[in-house]
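Structure, all three chains, one model.
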Amino acid sequence: MTATSAASSTRPPFWRDIRVLRIVAQIAAVVIAFVTARWLLGNLTTNLDEQGIPTGWDFLDNPAGFAIRDSPFDPTSPVRHLIWVGIRNTAAISIVGIVLALFIGTFVGIGRLSTNWLVRKLATLYVETFRNIPVLVIIIFVGFALFTFGPLPQFNPANPPQLVQIPGTDTNLMILSSSRLGFPSFQNNDNGGTFWIIMAIALLAAIAVWVWRTRYNERTGEAHHRVLWSFGTLFIVGVTAYIGLSGPISISWPVVSESGRVIVGGIATNDGYIAITLALGIYTASHIAEIIRGSILAVPKGQNEAANALALSGFQRYRFVVLPQAARIALPPIINQFLNLVKNSSLATAVAFPEITSVVRTAIGNGNPAPQMILILMGCYLAFSLFISLIMNIVNRRLQIEGRS
Amino acid sequence: MTNQEDTAMTDQPDTSTPNGDATDTVFADATQMMGSSGEVMIDLEGVDKFFGDFQALKNIDMKVGKQEVVVVIGPSGSGKSTLIRCINRLEAHDRGRITVDGVELSDDIRNIQEIRRETGMVFQSFNLFPHLTVLENVTLAPRQVRREPKARAEAVAMDLLERVKIPEQARKFPGQLSGGQQQRVAIARSLAMNPKVILFDEPTSALDPEMIKEVLDTMKELAASGMTMIVVTHEMGFAREVADRVVFMSDGQIVEVGTPEHFFENPREERTKLFLSQIL
Amino acid sequence: MSIDWGYTVPPDQGEGNIAHALAEANAPRHGDRTPKEWIRANLFNTWYNTIITFVFGAVALIGGYYVLRFLFVTAQWEAVSDNLELFMLGTYPRSERTRIVVQMLMMSGSVGLLVGYARARARRLADEAGIDLIPVTPREAIATYGAVAVFVGASLAIGARTIGPYMLVVGCVAAGVAGFMATRPLPNPFAKLILFTPFAIAAGTLTLVSDLNNGAAYLIAAGATAMLVLVHVVRTLPLILSAGLVTGVVGFQALSGTGGIGWLFLAAALVPVAFDVLGRVQDNLPPAVGWIGVALVTVALVRRVIVDGIGFATAVVFVLVAVAVVAMLRSNPGPALRIGVFVVLSFAMWLVTGAVDLEGIDWKDWSGLHLNIVVAGASIVLAFPVGLLLALARRSSLPVLRYMSTAYIEIIRGVPLISLLLMGQFFIGFFLNSDDPLSNITRATTAITMFSAAYIAEIVRGGLQSVGDGQTEAGQALGLSPAAITRLLILPQALRNVIPAMVGQFISLFKDTSLLAIIGIINFLSVREIVHAQEAFRGVGIAETLVYVAFGFWAISFTMSRESQRLERRLGVGVR
């Protein structure tokens, strides 16, 4: 019931007037909240002062005083740099973890609906197992399994890692061990920056070509071959730029160092990273599998019947009828799972990987003030969630435009 | 919109016919009552209601007398539901004055509560409370609002359930009843508060045809017992038999008012004729 | 007939899917097939399915072989069996084992009584409405509770060296069954003997398992039996409810002691039966009785304050008295009498607990699986009212309330639990003025409660949205006040709709209690650290303890999720 300004001939007394009461109630709520907040914060600052903990933000510029494993981070760098490293690591876990979870989860989710009894039961086993075990237990388990039981050797001079080499040469394609993986990476030579800029432009061009070919197909009905055209564009520009700039980038191959303890060159990941990413991927995949299964089930049966009546093949039915509708339903919960994955990455402290939460804990342990550090920590995760929620809102709005709400 | 345009209309009800019977009575506006004891129960003066930019009620002037049965008809979107929802403050009117039994409807919560106690409402979708039994549905308001003791409230409730002819359903849940039975429970629920006027918002529109009769019979009995009623409905048979006055609304305005005889035999306005031709 | 999906496809979810349709089209009817035909249909019906079956089958067989070999042959389960008590109870002082026994017996009895209450109430409503109750089938019970039974059984099989743990498990089951049976009419007189079995078993358990001397053991057992007999004889619904709640609270207090605000919970537990009695005599009582009650309590209160000074307890009672006075001044005899009765009850319980004055074991000594369960339970009980208020505020028509509650909910939901736990560990204590530092567990529970409240608020909000507008309008049309509408009409329906989601939240919460390991609280997960710090198990049995802990969490969570599905099926509701 809403109260608007009715022109009544008598004004009710203010203690019975709805509009007045509403405003008074809100003012009272604000006042109570304000007073409580002031009391709490007052206590906080008093107690902090008593403990000798600084309440300002100056500590951010102090040297960190400790090193981060497997990272070029320097103990004399300021604390704010430290935080940046932590954020980067969290992002690294999240991105790879999400891709892994989507991959595994899609397979398992579709497997749950398979006509093959064995596949169905195995997929169900997967989901019911990992959904009911706490993430932390899974992380410890994966870490333990990898480090102790892994079929791969430890990484030290006595146990050299497994080298996967390009046949006939001495170059390492991959270096495998239970504590480190090494992969080749790109390395910028002269004009490396220019090359990447050109490639970025090429990417835009490829997208434009894709759109153009799609329109062409709509206009004339001929096959668009848009994949061929776009990737072809990218390829041609890339090769031309590479030759024209005389080798702006090269591949850096991973090599075991002299001491036999480190990987030099290429990209190396450390053991904690593998453990946490794998564990999070496995755990989140079980939730995503359920979501995918539910979304396919939620597509009304009549859609299959209609597709069959139109003589669409099985694949076409999936591609044009079922999956688009299922995706619409599945997308918001899946994005929610991504958010959960980012939040769960905070448990990497159990495998000693320095993402933002571990970094903050170590920093606090090294004398930085706890309240501010934890505030920064929460702020980082809030930023992540806001970002992901924003994406979700955009996606939702786009989906609603395409269909009926 | 009413008496300015049609100069042929008189201010007094024209009840004369060659036979001396009252057949075709048309009113100048909605402020004249019919078939009542003469006292005004509900008074609307210059009522406007806006939903954003859209004006749902335009300058409504209407009086309803005690024991009068007024039936409001009109096409969808004409504002008839909004009209009666403004009377018990489910919607708040923006301009004008609404008075119910002498109490003015304003921002004063005491007035609002008093008016709500004295008016009953029967909804199109029944709105019974699914987690309470039928008996509890009927006794809830008297016990909570009028503070009646449980025994007395239940006795009154059983009487009312007998009056609407479903006493055996007292301990069942609304989900177990048919639509017609549920609506009769809703009527009993309103009656339990001993209201002075009952508002009906399309009470039979959500019912299957075979159940409409039982609800209409209940409403007829109610009218015959002297209850003041404002009924928004499409049931023309009911209007013909029971109404003291029929009010036709369109586009937020009261277009024509008359006795049932006038309305269905001899409507004046074009809009009225168009509407009736579509539904009769 | 459709293929037996079992629990994987809840019956009323979705209208079908492609694979299902394909499967139905490809496979002949379930009941008509011989095993050979079934295998052909389900495993080998197309060429790629055949390949898949072979590949996955091989993987499954090999994997299964290794797993089983590990579990039954090569694993050294001593790491678990020698430390079973550590896992279950953590570092709880051994000398106080009696309390644990009493608590578990009381809690089991409480669960039995409360389940019996739910059943009896449902039966009464169904009888009056003329519908039938769906009986619980053994198959349903096994499917739902099987996992936890296996866990308990396995734990016993691995680690129970003496008869004590067996007796405890048997005693708890007996207490639960007796509690349930007490709520039913038992026409067969021999069946009534069931009520006395807790007496025997409990007495036996207490004497064997704990250090309690025989006299006290028999006394406790006799008291419990007397209560069961009372419940059985009288068997009114409010009495059953109160009996169940009181047993639970007393059981909890056997462990935590009678200090603190235990009296408040005891008074709340007695409310159902007290209000029922009040309701029967209410119409014959003059309002003056309420005034007299308030006056008496105020006098006693003032005397107490003069003697002991003002404390938290006295402050709470003051507030209650003030509320009662205000209610009575508004000439609403009904609520005033109820508040008055509650005040009297609280005061009486306060005196009782003061007289009994049992010293408790502080939270900070609780650990092991016991701690996980207690923290999860306490958290959800405490977080529920907060979440409810937050949800109502978020739906309020007052913008200020909406913004404040939305801000809280969104911030808490955007950060991981570990950050709140760290906040709790490092500086929640600083927000309060007291000199007494809060214990580790109190801080952690506060953080977890804050966390759950936001999620519960979202669940309740979903439930509130699921109740249509028409209900509010009907209440308004009848003249009910907004508070009455929310309390009597909206909330009952909303909460009933979200029961499955709430159970899901409890499961999440239980799993999240494993995070206490990170901040150094010894719970089921981090007992391993203590185990492997011992000489005998340094580096030995690491996998075994991990598997055991994982299995324990899994069994409890799985059982709860099955229970939630069972509830969903029976209630026919489910708003996600």
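The interface with chain B takes residues 1-13, 16-19, 21 of chain A (CB under 8 Å).
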